[in-house]
Amino acid sequence: MNALATKIARWIESQGPISVAQYMNLCQFDSESGSYTARQTIGRDFITSPEVSQTFGEMLGLWVAQTWHDQGRPANPRLIEMGPGRGTLMSDALRAIAAAAPEFLAVAEIVLVEASPSLMTVQRDKLKLTSADIEWHERFDDTLTDRPLYLIANEFFDCLPVHQYVKTERGWFEQMVGLKGDALTFALYPDPAPNSDMLLPPSRGTAPNGAVYEISPAAIALTEEIARVIAKQGGGALFMDYGYDSLGFGDTLQAIANGKAVELLNDPGESDISAHVDFLALARAAADAGAAVYGPTTQCNFLADLGIGERGERLIKSNPTDAREIAIAIDRLVNPAEMGALFKALVLVAQGAPKPPGFGFG
Ligand SMILES: C[S@@+](CC[C@H](N)C(=O)[O-])C[C@H]1O[C@@H](n2cnc3c(N)ncnc32)[C@H](O)[C@@H]1O
Description:
Layout: H1 3-15, E1 18-19, H2 20-29, H3 35-38, H4 49-52, H5 54-70, E2 78-82, H6 88-100, H7 102-107, E3 109-113, H8 117-126, E4 134-137, E5 149-154, E6 163-168, E7 171-180, E8 183-188, H9 196-199, E9 212-215, H10 217-233, E10 235-244, E11 254-257, E12 260-262, E13 272-274, E14 277-278, H11 279-288, E15 291-298, H12 299-306, H13 308-318, H14 323-334, H15 336-340, E16 343-350
Parallel strand pairs: 2-3, 2-5, 3-4, 5-10, 10-14
Antiparallel strand pairs: 1-7, 6-7, 6-9, 7-8, 10-16, 11-12, 11-13, 15-16
Helix pairs in contact: 5-6, 10-11, 13-14
Bound molecules: S-adenosylmethionine (SAM).
């Protein structure tokens, strides 16, 4: 048992079992042993799209600049990135915007929202040479102003904690993390979930015993907040992540260490723990909060529509010796058998705003 497992076990002994959501949060952000606070998890446990190819961040930067232009270049825009990881996406995005739309950078405020102090340090270092003034905050709530909001978030929502509910012959029960002897173990809460009628979709009645339903109140609440800001102040939000776009039951919680799936309850904090994003729930939350919603569409369609193919060709022309590497990396982003189909894009804009870039296909 590692130090974090012992800490969680002592907590459960004194307070009782914890939800899967609480467990995820401790694994990620325990101040001493969390994967995002104490471990260089990105690039070691898993790799994200901006770390695969510089063209990913460039495309997202151009998406921001084009959206702003199409909306009539509103004054005082704010560009916010949620969960910037190693700062690679923002670094590539700012370089692309500086080349294609310096007029955006001349008036924009740049804000990074990062909960991990150690990753903030990594980001500051990565971005120290950019000419843009950048602010850091730990929470989206701390960034609120009355400016138009342009927000990007890649592989951010999959980190937000999910609750899991399991169907049994006695109804739906919340999945908890408890103790069996000294070891952490999954166990259902002893009483049925009191609010399952409100939490679970109508098809819960026909789900088979053993079915699992996941819900992320944190992701839904944040999406509503972002959507409310955009509906009122204008701008656009782009969420890219892996996840599903139809209603379903299934256990998607996963822990990855050094690129391989590992047991969720073994060595907490020493792997990256996440769950697939329920894009339908986020789209519904955004629409309910007053935003116009585009997608989800696949990463493959979205990036192709933004012109990643053409960008790749230009990059290869200027770096012919790296041609093979560049082509392989871009293929990894867009190939449906790799990241192209599992990863999706969801966009929010204000009602009546022009159709955002990335949805011109088909
Ligand atoms: C999977 S990494 C993705 C990093 C980056 N976007 C990329 O694509 O490489 C998740 C990032 O979100 C941050 N994060 C996770 N939960 C957060 C929260 N609740 N508030 C702020 N940042 C969070 C992590 O610390 C990390 O920087």
